[in-house]
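Methods: example folding runs. The two proteins below were folded one after another, and each record is reproduced exactly as written to the output file, sequence line first and structure-token line second.
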Amino acid sequence: MAETKSITELEQVLIDDFSLFDTWEEKYEYLIDLGKKLAPLDPSYKTEEYKIKGCQSSVWIHSAYKDGHVYFEGDSDAIIVKGLVSLMIMVLSGHTPKEIVDAPLDFINAIGLSSHLAQTRSNGLRAMIKQMKLDAAAWGS
């Protein structure tokens, strides 16, 4: 079985990927592409129970626990936000609850997302991260 990368290593991969683009237009295109590659979320999870509160657009995150690791899947009805969902799943899915809860997620600032997202998207991203960490904490208890 392939060695799983740590959250920090995955963050560095994204930092490196985003550094290949010169403009924010290109970075947004990359983000949109990541969203397009996101596996479809089962419609049974597109309910209020899985909806992230605090997001302007609709965002659903579902978590599952298997063999000591938390796995996330999600979706959004907005293309850029779907890319953000994809980013968070890439970084956090497949790790232990403690690793997820403790992750500082410095890559968000490192790639410049926090300064280039509209306030509403930034709030939504924070709400998404908070919910993913809460889910991980619940699985870990």
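Second run, written to the same file directly after the first:
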Amino acid sequence: MTNSAQPSADSHNPLRRAVVYGLGAMGRPMARNLHQHGLLIGVKNRTAGKAQALQKELGLPDFPDDATLFSQADCVVTCVAADDDLKAVVRKITPHLAAGSVIIDTSTVSPETARELAEDLKKQGIEFLDAPMSGGVEGARKGALSFMVGGDKNTFKRARDIFAAMGNQITWMGKSGQGQAAKMVNQVMVAGIAQAVCEALAFAEASKLNTDKLIEVLTAGAANNWFLEKRGHSMLKNEFGTGFKLSLLHKDLSICQSTVKRLDAELPIIEQGLREYGELMQKGYGDEDISALIRLYRRIFHTDEHPGTPPDSNANLSEATTT
């Protein structure tokens, strides 16, 4: 239970004293942006070295223990990998939080987990917002993430400064769990777009098109999308080391699958994504970006991972321009 002797956070004032728990590829840049806006008092990670390194980089105060750190916060921004991880973190930090504090979870977990945590924390005087994000590592670094937020609307209003430091699109989706439900929709779209782009670019390689020029023309037309812009060139160079790990999308699609099954339905994009990313994980590619999906689609055209040099950029067929 929350320590009743702790000073209660003001349940009406804007949140201004944040701790970030979870310093992976997304958590670190989010913490840096909160610090830049004067909203960060500390960081925490299951691997202590990551927290210590970022604490030193940002010149954050050295709290003697978790109780002191979290008791000084009016909000904790969590960014972890899965439902069980989040539940473990919440159990660990809740006893140290003052009544009226807010946990803002930016992880991707099931809507059911978000609702359960919100209900349990409410009984202890703690508010919970499920606030999954989209925008990739690039968006996190630039403070340009899109947040889909579920929970109490007044609590959401208190957290506006926190969200604004990390993102440029912050949308209240409704009651607890609705943020995660929106993220499920997002992930289905991400999976479908990735499938289409990877399949199409494998087709382009097999057709021996100049892929640099192809991407240039595609991004100027109706086929343009974030994934093509950010991952098109890198996947064609077999560079899969940065971005969203395919094992994490596989995890997200499993959550999507469970959610859709509760509606007595099945979505082909989800089922295909689970099969294909599962195959890549079995082959040892789980830590690669989701654009590694092109590895599978190249097999359709019997091409390897190094399709060769693009055709001459001066060729007449490649000189078409838009007007």
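Comment on the second run: Confidence is low (pLDDT under 50) at residues 1-7, 307-323.
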